[in-house]
């Protein structure tokens, strides 16, 4: 045990040095470098896939205490408290987005990309972008459908912006809240891995929604099987990222709880994607019916005679 | 907003003067937006009259008729208002949280004034829509909206970009892009009933 104590002491110094530097140091594109310093000093809890877990945990506990003391100073009513959640650079945000697009089994998003400095910029603006892109592309689909079939009544459908916004933001905040609450409740079962903080969970969910943005844009292509293919691909990427991030936390729990939790996470994500597709990109039945009060779009496999070109204003 | 001291002796002459002066200040800022140069006028003498006038004009022109069905129409007057003002406030908060050194109302002022090109685009679109509908009609409107959108972005970043450190400039400018994109979208999809 003497050698372990020595090691613990030395690496604690390194941890404090790194922590002192952390406010200024940019945790930028060194995600591929698995230096023990960068990983050990700032992590709370163990990164199980890297080994040396006991030493990692002891230093990281002390490092976490130091970090908590530093973080407790601004109260939540001050502006600088919230400023600490926007303490990111452009390169860091882009790095985190890249990390969410390409999930890898060994690389936990929270440990590897967030490095215990979650930000609120990414989740907030990704959700805003997704909500507006949903509304805009849903509207565009209707425009393109009307050009093929002038009997469809076009209207700007502005209420869809509010629906999109509210549903995306509720998903990106309430589901992480529930997940975080559940993980904290099960905290007693796990010995080694501490649960993620609420903000880290929000961050993971927010960045995982990024892949839906290009998916929604690609849904403009009016080929149904292609739309479902893109949807499945994006959902797979996004859910995989979530599962890889949550796996180190839940695998110490009972098998049943772990499976239920992970499948609930994936199911909710799938529900979001399918809900977006069905609500914003509805498809008409094959027979041409009189336009119902709900606006629908036309699948492309109906052969229609080319009509006179129409502008977006109904004649 | 500075107001002229009204001498209690002659109340009759006091009222037109502050109005003309304020209108001139607003007009001067309009010119600064239309020809964006590196100048501090918008930042130093900020006011919110210009943004209010622009927002009301835009919302009046964008609102749908009450005859149209409630669910499927374009934005209501209040919706445009809320989008513009909440959008501007959110962008300002974002910019300040990222560590920008611009004050809250200065940022609101700049964002509001830079809606001017888009308001001009709305006017042009309404005029163009009086002509025959057709793809040419749509192309003209699309071109006008794109040009004015680019103009708004250039004008606002000319004023706002300097307030952020260079490694966060893109983070602060992206929400501005999104904001004007949404407004441009509302203008482009406007259909008179």
TrEMBL record, chain A:
Keywords: Membrane, Transmembrane, Transmembrane helix. This is Protein YIPF. Belongs to the YIP1 family. GO terms for biological process: vesicle-mediated transport. It is found in: Golgi apparatus membrane; Golgi apparatus, cis-Golgi network membrane; Golgi apparatus, trans-Golgi network membrane; Late endosome membrane. Residues 101-274 form the Yip1 domain. PANTHER family: PROTEIN YIPF, PROTEIN YIPF2. The gene is YIPF2. It comes from Macaca nemestrina (Pig-tailed macaque). Its main location: Golgi. It is a multi-pass membrane protein. One of its GO terms (molecular function) is small GTPase binding. It holds the Pfam family Yip1. GO terms for cellular component: Golgi medial cisterna; Golgi membrane; Golgi trans cisterna; late endosome membrane; trans-Golgi network; transport vesicle. The chain crosses the membrane at residues 120-143, 163-183, 204-222, 228-249, 256-280. InterPro entries: Yip1_dom, Yip5/YIPF1/YIPF2.
TrEMBL record, chain B:
One of its GO terms (cellular component) is Golgi trans cisterna. Keywords: Membrane, Transmembrane, Transmembrane helix. It comes from the Eukaryota. Residues 33-186 form the Yip1 domain. InterPro entries: Yip1/4-like, Yip1_dom. Its main location: Golgi. It holds the Pfam family Yip1. It is found in: Golgi apparatus membrane; Membrane. The keyword Oxidoreductase does not apply. Belongs to the YIP1 family. This is Protein YIPF. The gene is YIPF6.
